[in-house]
Structures are given as C-alpha cells and as structure tokens.
Design goal:
Blueprint (H helix, E strand, L loop, with lengths): L3 H12 L2 H8 L3 H15 L4 E4 L2 E4 L1 H21 L11 E8 L8 H10 L3 E7 L2 H10 L4 E5 H4 L5 E9 L1 E6 L12 H4 L4 E3 L6 H10 L9 E3 L3 H9 L5 E4 H4 L4 H4 E3 L9 E8 L6 H12 L12 H10 L1
Parallel strand pairs: 3-4, 3-5, 8-9
Antiparallel strand pairs: 1-2, 5-12, 6-12, 7-10, 7-11
Helix pairs in contact: 1-2, 1-3, 1-4, 2-3, 5-13
Length: 317
C-alpha cells in the first residue's frame, strides 16, 4: 500500500491548512504536521510555504503533491469496484471557478451534461484565483474556469478558450449617469467603482479611469465578487458596477438598473478552462469541456473582429 503520509500531504494541499487537512483525514493536526515535516526531511526540500493564513505549495512541492494525488487516485480506482464498470461517464466531476462571480458561465453546461449522463455528480466551487490553481495542481478539482488573462500565467496547465465575457458598466436606473446620452471617462471618475477580483482587463481599465485624472484609485475602487451584494450596493449608492452582457437581458434588470453600453469601456475578455498538463483528462472532463463551449449564449460568442480575443486564441493554440 502507499505511504499514508502521501494521503495527509494531499489533504493539506487541497484544504490549504494543516487544521483543515487533518479534519479531512480524521487525525490530529499535530500528527499531520509531523507527517508532512517527515516527508519534507526525506525529500530534502520544503513542500509547503507556511503563512499566517495557512499553507501554499512551493514550486517543487506542487509537483510532488500532484504526483502524490495521481498515485492516490490510481490506487483508489484499482480497489474501487465501481471503477471497473463499463460506464465511463459516471463519478464526480469537480469544477472550480475564479472569481466566484463567474459561476453562472458553467450552469448551462452542467445542466446539459447532467441530462446526457445522469450518473455524473457535480462539485462546483468558487474561490480566489490562487486558491483555485492550487486546487487544480493538487487534484482537488478536475477543471478550472476563469479569465484567460489570469490562467495564461501558469505554464503547467492546458487552457482552452470557450467564450468571451462581454461586460459594461452599470448603475441604478435613477443614477445621474443614466440620463447622460454619451458619458465620458471623466464622468465616471466622479463616482466610486465596484470591481470583480482577478478581473483583467477590468482592473486595469477601472484604475486608469482614476489615475489618468490624478485621482488615487485605491480610494475609489471596491472589490466584490458576490453579485447580489454588488446589486444591493448599486441600488443604494452612486457607485458604478460591472455587469455581463448576458445578464443585462435577464428579466427585471432594466426595471432597476441601466447599463452604460454606449461607453464601450471594457474589451471582450476571453474565458478559458484549464486542466493539468501532466494528467490525461478523464472522459467526463472531456465531455464537460465539449459541452461547455457548445452551451455558451450568443452574447458570449468569440468575435472574430476582436483583436484581444484573436491574440488569446493564438496563445492557446
């Protein structure tokens, strides 16, 4: 059988802390901490970087944890009678999304795949980007979903663009800007902005609205991913938010909000899926990726005329 320390290490990597990792495997924190420390002494390098908020895999530790997760999964499949069933489209599909405000982009794909293969069960989690990448590397999730601009920074994952996120600023319906036919960037700079996290190109564009006019963006920008909270703040203040084009057409939006679509502030942001480069995707992962691309609404289509999307496609090919 495999060294039990591998199980403890993978649990810590997936949980992001010794305390949560110990709870996941049902032993004490001190036992897990000692087990990981023993492994680090044996391999001769640090697997985790300890921080006040938990642990983060080092570069060498990430490779070690990924290999350990692969061994554990392969061993589990060998002893699992369900793994020998002919139905390859069964089991749990674990999908991570960052930022969490993008979870809606995969809902239709999950619904369609569930209809095609009822034996598949889903685990959908939203998190920060660094956390999602660590989960992907350690095998805690099978697929990562996010903005390609962020995913492209990681060479150890295989990316595939499945759509483009078209967004615009929006305000409450009775906001002063809603009555302006062609608002300018100077008009926007008079108000606070609410930006999603890990949101290139949104982050750079929003900062430029203020810095180009000598205003400290740190004093004007709020970072919030939970869209119901964003809507609540927009309704109760003069702040400006960011909304996806696909949401603008939803019932009830125009009753309370106004999209500043004429401003054309944000370029289309390519959306991508990512899987581990050194791990062959399972059939259910490949099926999900195929359905994901086919299920995107027209408002998220990849426009051939958009230079940003074309460059992203060239990088991903």
């Amino acid at each position: 059988m495999l060294d039990p320390r591998l199980k403890y290490l993978v649990a810590v990597a997936r949980a992001g802390s010794f305390t949560a990792g110990a709870a996941a495997v049902g032993i004490t924190q001190s036992a897990v901490t000692k087990s990981v420390a023993d492994l680090e002494r044996e391999v001769g390098y640090a697997i985790f970087e300890r921080t006040t908020r938990g642990v983060v895999l080092t570069e060498r530790g990430s490779y070690f944890a990924e290999r350990a997760a692969m061994l554990l999964e392969a061993t589990r499949d060998l002893f699992d009678p369900d793994a020998r069933r002919p139905n390859l489209y069964s089991g749990v599909l674990r999908v991570g999304v960052a930022p969490a405000s993008l979870e809606w982009t995969v809902v239709e794909a999950i619904v369609r795949l569930r209809k095609q293969h009822p034996a598949i069960k889903f685990e959908l989690t939203g998190s920060g980007f660094e956390r999602m990448i660590q989960q992907l590397r350690s095998g805690a999730i099978d697929v990562a979903i996010g903005l390609d601009a962020a995913l492209s920074d990681w060479p150890d994952v295989n990316r595939s663009i499945f759509g483009a996120l078209h967004t615009s600023p929006f305000v409450r319906k009775d906001h002063p800007l809603a009555a302006v036919a062609n608002p300018t960037l100077a008009d926007l700079a008079r108000y606070d902005f609410i930006s999603p996290s890990i949101s290139r190109p949104h982050e750079e564009v929003i900062r430029e609205v203020y810095t180009a006019r000598g205003v400290a963006w740190q004093n004007r920008v709020n970072v919030i991913d939970y869209f119901p909270a964003v809507k609540r703040l927009i309704l109760t203040s003069d702040a400006i938010g960011v909304v996806a084009a696909a949401y603008v057409s939803q019932p009830g939006f125009t009753d309370r909000f106004a999209a500043l679509s004429n401003l054309d502030l944000f370029p289309a942001a390519p959306l991508a899926s990512a899987v581990r480069a050194q791990w062959e995707p399972k059939p259910i992962v490949r099926a999900f990726l195929a359905v994901l691309r086919a299920s995107q609404p027209r408002s998220m289509a990849i426009s051939a005329g958009n230079d940003n999307v074309e460059k992203a496609l060239d990088r991903a090919r």
